[in-house]
Amino acid sequence: MNENQLKSHKEFVYLIKQSPAILALIFVAVIWYILTLIFPPYMFPPFTDIFKTIFSFYKNGDLWVNVYNTTWRVFVAFGTAVAMGTIVGMIMGFFSLMEAGIKPLLFVIQTIASIVWCFFAVIWFSSTNFAVIFVVFIVGFPIITINVWEGTKNIDLGLEDMAKIFGVPQKARIRGIIIPSVLPYIFAGIRSSLSYCWKVAILAELMVGMKGIGYWMNYSWGQAEFTEVYAWVLVMVVLMLMSEYLLIRPLEAWLMRWRPKRERG
Amino acid sequence: MNKEVKAGKTIEVIGIEKSFKSRDGILKVLDGITFKVDAASLVCILGPSGSGKSVTLHIISGLLQKDKGKIMIGNEEVRKVKPGLFSFVFQNPRLLPWLTVEGNIKYILRYTGKTNKEMNEIIDKVLDTMHLLPFKKYYPHQLSGGMQQRVALARAWAFNSDIILMDEPFSSLDEITAIALREELLRIWERKRKTIIFVTHNIAEACYLADKIVLLTPKPTKVFKEVLVPLERPRVFGEDRSYEVVKKVFKLFEECLSSYKVTREDLMQEEEIR
Fold this sequence. Notes:
heterodimer, A: mainly alpha, 10 helices, B: alpha/beta, Rossmann fold, 2 domains, six-stranded mixed sheet, four-stranded antiparallel sheet, 8 helices, 12 strands, globular
């Protein structure tokens, strides 16, 4: 096989491997279609109605404003959660005293339901952007922290010893050994908390009353405009998938390009 | 042999003692280890498993603290890790998986005050002598275990310290690969002599490599005997004239174990416990 053939072959294999995901989406669409035939449109509105509604959002400008509002809140909150979680997780991994102290706090944070955090946020920060950001942060932060903490404990101390012997200074050991060792765990934390953070952002917006996708979803619900609810849900799903597949995964693949590719067959 | 360069420093190990705390109390591992390594010579530390060979080496390097005793390098006492004094080849390669072969060597050269050009020259040269040049851009996981250990050896050589410490570097490799790497080691060492301390439990390996073998007793460990290896260099692994030396060292080894009332079964048991 020459190089071009090899490339097209690889693309073909890739498509085959992705086909279950595509088939699953088609399956859901078919089920939805069948449901629209059986039940009245207020329960299961047909696709055409949902897309028309989204298009109307687009035309009156609601779509971009709300996508923008929700997205920037999630990104600021989530970015802060990743940064803080990485630092706190590493501190826990390196200092057992800190570990013993912070561990119960993390569990307390995780035990409190996100809706309760919404109440707290309103009490403390009233109806502000910061309140929404706070709730999203408090949900993402412990997940990232616990992952990084785990990762810090798994750092190969043999590599540290090696670098010490060869006189690599501490700063360079942190940059060259510790950060790359923890990176896979940071991404594990990101993967298991990002979609969760999106969901909580919706909840926080409607609870706190800040305009965004969650807010309007609730509004449409109140007006019994169920097609609009579905339209916003679809927008949300697309946003979530985009943040995962267009941002996080490529970033992970690029940062960890040294990793062995798991190719089977 | 006329072109050989001699480098390296004398190492004196004087009365090293080391105990570890364990669940059953205090375990004395080293009980007064004393030996001397001449500059630019290759000394093997040979001992049964669990005899604290590796502990001795880690104490010499400063990675592990001693309870008593003194380590003299040249005329200087060394108490903790002194950057740049040693290279170390560990039992496993200890390469950074996220860096290429080239990157791994560069990682440790970067802090020795060399320019980028100098570093690249050193890397190319050392990879060339170790027959690794075609694998310069490979990541460790793309290489076999033997190749990875070869990279670790190249890294130690590139660092160009006066002293190289080796902790059973070939023990996890298959014998064919191990033989090839031993030859490689002697080849580069004979070209540029440095002081090497090589820890092993393999008698044939010790007799092939060493100028002098330091034979250790089981725990609590002392030096049982020092054996000079009279074989002329260059040597060939497994050659006839080495048999006498191997036989002699093997006999000493048995003698050492029996005087400590340690049977082979004990050693096997200990291996299992660890």
